Amino acid sequence: MHMDRPMFVFGSDRAGRHREGAALEALRNRGAVYGQGAGPQGNCYAIPTRCEMARPLRRDEIAHGVATFLDYTRTHPWLLFDVTPIGCDNAGYGPEDIAPMFAGAPHNVTLPRVFADILAAQSSS
Length: 125
What we know:
Strand content: 15-25%
Helix content: 25-40%
Number of helices: 4
């Protein structure tokens, strides 16, 4: 089975409150489940970028969530994933902090242009 619409990948708090930004979009329009802070849900996938109290997670914690997501994408090659610039708005990190976590993403993952540009610059240097 191949989905007509790519899965919307967004940053979430671990409590799954989905109150603002891409998380709110996921809740309203993509089937995100209130109270589920990580993993696949509806036509989207949540990667935790903030703790239960909505404070930013450490980069290594976000990297763990990204690695779990990338494992999921590799075991679901028939699905397409459209990643938003997670961690770069409400969690307060810059694209240069988060983009390298997606290095080696499979072909069924579309990264935001800012992430793709950073990864391309790193691979050419």
